[in-house]
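Input C-alpha cells:
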C-alpha cells in the first residue's frame, strides 16, 4: 500500500497524516520532516515515524510511497523540495497555494520531474483547490451560455488555525497591515490561482485579472482582510470575493452562476478550510498510485473517489 512521509508538521500536515492513517489510505507514516522538533513530536509519538530536521537525509521512497508537502505557500520554496522528493521516488501531494496555478517554468520543472521519475504530483486544498475553483466549475458545467460567475466566501477566523489568523493581520494598525502585505507576510495567496483555474477549465481566455486587497478595521485596529479578484473575458466575468474576519456577522460560501438555468448555491457556515483541506489531501493521496505520471492541478482531475 505504501507509506506516507510528511514534510511540514504544522496543523495541516499533522491532521492529514492522522486522517490518512485512520482511513487506511497509507500503511504507516514512515517519516516526518520539520525543522521544529516540537512540531514533529505529535506524529513521532503517535505513529512511530522517524523525525528529520531537513528533507536532505531522507531514505529513498519505495513503490506506492507518498509525501505530503505542507510547509509554505511559496512556489519558489516548495517546488525544489517536490522535485527532490520525486527524484527520491515519492509521489507528492502539496497544499502550497502558489502551485495551484504555477508559473510556466515551475510547472515544466515539476511535470518533467514527475514523468521522468514515473511519479505523480497533485496540488490540492480547500481554497485554492475546491471552494472558489473546482466547486463553481462543477456548478457552471450544469448551465448553458454562462456569462457571469461570482463566489463569495466569508470565513470566521476565530474558528481557524493561528497561522491563518496571522495572515489576516488581526491586531495590527493599518500601517503595519500595509507593510505586512507589501512584504508578502500577510494575505491569502490563492485567489488569482483560483480565478485562472476556473477560467481555464471553462475555456475562457484569462489575461485580464485584477486583484484588490484591503484591511477590515474596527476602532483603528485590523480585524481581518478582504480580497477581491475579477477576471474579464470577451464580455464575461468572474468575481471572487473573500472575507476573512474575526467573528463576522455570518460565515458561508455562495456561488452564483448567471446562465441557463441560473444557479445559486449556498454552503451554510462555509466549507471548513482546515478540515476540508485535510479531506482534499487524503483523497489526493488515495489517487496518486492510480494516475499516469504527471503534474495535476485541482481542475485536471475528474470528480470521483478512487478506492
Ligand atoms: N490550499 C489550501 O486550501 C490550504 C489550506 C490550508 C493550508 N494551506 C497551506 O498549507 C501549508 C501548511 O499549513 P499549516 O497551517 O500546517 O502551516 P504552518 O502552521 O506554517 O506549519 C508548517 C510547518 O512546516 C515547518 N517547516 C518550515 N520549513 C520547512 C521545511 N523546509 N521542511 C519541512 N518543514 C518545514 C514549519 O516550521 P517552522 O515553524 O519552524 O518554520 C512548521 O512547523 C501552508 O503553506 C498553508 O498556507 C493551504
Amino acid at each position: 500500500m505504501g507509506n506516507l512521509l510528511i514534510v511540514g508538521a504544522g496543523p495541516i500536515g499533522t491532521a492529514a497524516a492522522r486522517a490518512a492513517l485512520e482511513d487506511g489510505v497509507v500503511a504507516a507514516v514512515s517519516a516526518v520532516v520539520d525543522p521544529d522538533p516540537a512540531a514533529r513530536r505529535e506524529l513521532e509519538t503517535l505513529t512511530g515515524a522517524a523525525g528529520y530536521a531537513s528533507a536532505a537525509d531522507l531514505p529513498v521512497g519505495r513503490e506506492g510511497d507518498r509525501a505530503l508537502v505542507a510547509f509554505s505557500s511559496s512556489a519558489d520554496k516548495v517546488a525544489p523540495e517536490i522535485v527532490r522528493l520525486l527524484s527520491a521516488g515519492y509521489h507528492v501531494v502539496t497544499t502550497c497555494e502558489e502551485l495551484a496555478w504555477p508559473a510556466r517554468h515551475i510547472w515544466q520543472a515539476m511535470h518533467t520531474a514527475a514523468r521522468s521519475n514515473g511519479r505523480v504530483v497533485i496540488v490540492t486544498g480547500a481554497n485554492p483547490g475546491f471552494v472558489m475553483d473546482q466547486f463553481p466549475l462543477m456548478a457552471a458545467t450544469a448551465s448553458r451560455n454562462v456569462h457571469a460567475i461570482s463566489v463569495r466566501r466569508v470565513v470566521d477566523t476565530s474558528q481557524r488555525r493561528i497561522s491563518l489568523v496571522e495572515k489576516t493581520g488581526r491586531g495590527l494598525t493599518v500601517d503595519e497591515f500595509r507593510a505586512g502585505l507589501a512584504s508578502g507576510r500577510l494575505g491569502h495567496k490563492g485567489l488569482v490561482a483560483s480565478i485562472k483555474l476556473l477560467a481555464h477549465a471553462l475555456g475562457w481566455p484569462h489575461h485580464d485579472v485584477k486583484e484588490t486587497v484591503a484591511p477590515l478595521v474596527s476602532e483603528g485596529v485590523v480585524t481581518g482582510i478582504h480580497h477581491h479578484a475579477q477576471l474579464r473575458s470577451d464580455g464575461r466575468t468572474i468575481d471572487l470575493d473573500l472575507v476573512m474576519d474575526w467573528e463576522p456577522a455570518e460565515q458561508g460560501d455562495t456561488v452564483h452562476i448567471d446562465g441557463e438555468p441560473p444557479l445559486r448555491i449556498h454552503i451554510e457556515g462555509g466549507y471548513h478550510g482546515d478540515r476540508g483541506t485535510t479531506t482534499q489531501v487524503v483523497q489526493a493521496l488515495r489517487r496518486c498510485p492510480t494516475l499516469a505520471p504527471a503534474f495535476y492541478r485541482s481542475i485536471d482531475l475528474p470528480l470521483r473517489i478512487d478506492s
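Residues 7-13, 33-36, 39, 70-73, 95-97, 125-129, 161, 163, 190, 273, 277 surround NAP (CB under 6 Å). Residues 73 and 97 are 5 Å apart (CA to CA).
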